[in-house]
């Protein structure tokens, strides 16, 4: 059962690049918040985005939008960090570790110095590692630091499966888990279409090794590379994914979404952020769902966790 909505529903976005501005635009269109503050090192950019968004207010939902500084975080319900260096063509998300870890330590320290006592939502890549950096620097309880994790990968997975089988993507239930990146994995054993297990729906004996299914997953895993090659960056999909998470938090939905959170024994994995299905509400991560994985999936998840743990140790050092 959900509780009453937060009275303020104030969100502060750190970074008004492609992702931050796409997220802000989606928030305006969907009427999720009633106060939105844009923060950027380039104050003119933040001012310009705020003015442009405000001019669309008659076509959207009533809300307060303005540019501001870190002081605006003091009474924010949610701070969403999209700032950082972008992923260049040919560069993996993990290649961004050293550059963005330094940026994040400064950003999070500045936010916490305001007395911020809300929730963090991290979108900057590598999101799993930077979520861990945010947790360590902020000193907040683990449930109040959420990474966007594999929410977009899961959406891509559901979309491509729906396209292949010609069904509404909202009737496809499937998860991508692990790193938001090259070591992520599809949980084939839990894919369902309209409640029917994929193996039975598609009459495939070995889904995990089926060529067509493998091709679908490869297109999910490599989607960002394909988009970056063609247009330089990805931002619409993740912008809408962040709005979905914002709704789950501010509307206290207790929704199950694949986010990056700290594992402490779940799936036999400790002290690493990675994408898993979890229940999210106004207090943050209420509960991590432990799916019953098959042996292959468990091994791949552990491998993904080990890769992230190594990179996280470098970022935190």
From TrEMBL:
Broad enzyme group: oxidoreductase
Catalytic activity: (S)-lactate + NAD(+) = pyruvate + NADH + H(+)
Residues binding beta-D-fructose 1,6-bisphosphate, per UniProt: 158, 173
InterPro entries noted in UniProt: L-lactate/malate_DH, L-lactate_DH, L-lactate_DH_AS, Lactate/malate_DH_C, Lactate/malate_DH_N, Lactate_DH/Glyco_Ohase_4_C, NAD(P)-bd_dom_sf
Gene3D superfamilies: Lactate dehydrogenase/glycoside hydrolase, family 4, C-terminal, NAD(P)-binding Rossmann-like Domain
Coiled coil region boundaries: none
A Pfam family of this chain: Ldh_1_C
Domain Lactate/malate dehydrogenase C-terminal stretches: 150-315
GO annotation (BP), single: glycolytic process
Cellular location(s): Cytoplasm
GO terms for cellular component: cytoplasm
Record key words, sorted: Allosteric enzyme, Cytoplasm, NAD, Oxidoreductase, Phosphoprotein
Record text on subunit structure and interactions: Homotetramer.
Family to which the UniProt record says this protein belongs: Belongs to the LDH/MDH superfamily. LDH family.
Role description: Catalyzes the conversion of lactate to pyruvate.
UniProt name for this protein: L-lactate dehydrogenase
């Amino acid at each position: 059962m959900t509780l009453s909505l937060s009275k303020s529903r104030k969100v502060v976005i750190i970074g008004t690049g492609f992702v931050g501005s796409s997220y802000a635009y989606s928030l305006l269109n969907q009427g999720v918040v009633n106060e939105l503050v844009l923060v950027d090192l380039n104050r003119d950019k933040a001012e310009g985005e705020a003015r442009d968004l405000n001019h669309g207010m008659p076509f959207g939902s009533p809300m307060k939008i303005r540019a501001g500084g870190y002081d605006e975080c003091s009474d924010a319900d949610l701070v969403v960090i999209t700032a950082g260096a972008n992923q260049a063509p040919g560069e993996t998300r993990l290649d961004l570790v050293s550059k963005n870890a330094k940026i994040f330590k400064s950003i999070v320290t500045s936010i916490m110095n305001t007395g911020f006592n809300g929730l963090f939502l991290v979108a900057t890549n590598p999101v799993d590692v930077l979520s861990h950096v945010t947790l360590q620097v902020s000193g907040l309880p683990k449930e109040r630091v959420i990474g966007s994790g594999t929410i977009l990968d899961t959406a891509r997975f559901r979309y491509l499966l729906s396209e292949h089988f010609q069904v509404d993507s909202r009737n496809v239930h499937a998860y991508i888990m692990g790193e938001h990146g090259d070591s992520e994995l599809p949980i084939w054993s839990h894919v369902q279409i309209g409640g029917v297990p994929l193996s039975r729906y598609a009459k495939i004996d070995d889904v995990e090794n089926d060529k067509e299914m493998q091709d679908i997953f490869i297109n999910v895993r490599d989607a960002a590379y394909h988009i970056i090659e063609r247009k330089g960056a990805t931002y619409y999909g993740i912008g809408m994914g962040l709005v979905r998470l914002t709704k789950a938090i501010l509307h206290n939905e207790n929704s199950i979404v694949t986010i990056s959170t700290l594992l402490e024994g779940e799936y036999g994995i400790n002290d690493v952020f990675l994408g898993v299905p979890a229940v999210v509400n106004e207090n943050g991560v209420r509960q991590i769902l432990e799916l019953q994985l098959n042996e292959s999936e468990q091994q791949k998840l552990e491998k993904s966790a080990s890769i992230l743990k190594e990179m996280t140790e470098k970022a935190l050092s």
